[in-house]
């Protein structure tokens, strides 16, 4: 996916690294226009530090775009659940609370199938 994105030429920089370590290494605050974490946060159980660092590095008006696996409020403990697959699902309430705590706003949330089995 990164190779294809690089060919497109639309990005200033692309990285394949540990998300939190990369954000924490980023010395300049308010330096990033867009953070994109597609199919990434399903491998991060505790998102508090990710949201904190996203807020720190994003420019005012910047975008943090990501996908998560949806957990229902009835199946979660502290906003998240580790599935048998090893992926972590987060509840919408957990995501919205984290966004609010870190001065971010959820502008849109859409429930879609991320994996289609047998296709």
What does this structure look like?
With 119 residues, this protein is an alpha/beta fold. It is 29% helix and 21% strand. The chain has four helices and five strands, in the order ααβαββββα. Strand 1, helix 3 (48-57) and strand 2 form a beta-alpha-beta unit. Helix 2 runs parallel beside helix 3. InterPro entries: Methyltransf_11, SAM-dependent_MTases_sf. It holds the Pfam family Methyltransf_11. Residues 1-66 form the Methyltransferase type domain.
The biggest beta sheet is recorded as:
3 strands, mixed
The Cα radius of gyration reads 15 Å
CA(first)-CA(last) distance: 20 Å
Q: Total number of β-strand segments?
A: 5
Number of continuous helical runs? 4
How much strand? 15-25%
Helix content, binned percent: 25-40%
Along the chain, the helix and strand elements come as HHEHEEEEH
Q: Report the structural category.
A: alpha/beta
As laid out across the biggest beta sheet, the strand order is 3-5-4
Shape: globular
> What are the low-pLDDT stretches, counting only 5+ consecutive residues below 50?
none
Query: What does the average pLDDT come to?
Result: 90
Keywords:
3-stranded mixed sheet, 119 residues, single chain, Methyltransf_11, two-stranded parallel ribbon, 29% helix, 5 strands, alpha/beta, SAM-dependent_MTases_sf
Give the secondary structure arrangement, pairings included.
Layout: H1 2-8, H2 19-25, E1 32-37, H3 48-57, E2 58-66, E3 69-71, E4 80-82, E5 88-91, H4 92-101
Parallel strand pairs: 1-2, 3-5
Antiparallel strand pairs: 4-5
Helix pairs in contact: 2-3
């Amino acid at each position: 996916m990164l190779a294809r994105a690089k060919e497109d030429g639309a990005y200033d920089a692309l990285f394949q690294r540990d998300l939190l370590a990369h954000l924490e290494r980023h010395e300049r605050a308010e330096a990033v226009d867009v953070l994109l974490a597609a199919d990434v946060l399903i491998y991060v159980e505790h998102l508090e530090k990710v949201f904190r660092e996203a807020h720190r590095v994003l420019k005012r008006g910047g975008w943090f775009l990501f996908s998560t696996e949806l957990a229902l409020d009835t199946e979660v403990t502290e906003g998240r659940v580790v599935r048998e697959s090893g992926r972590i699902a987060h509840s919408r309430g957990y995501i919205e609370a984290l966004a609010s705590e870190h001065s971010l706003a959820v502008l849109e949330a859409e429930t879609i199938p991320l994996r289609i089995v047998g296709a």
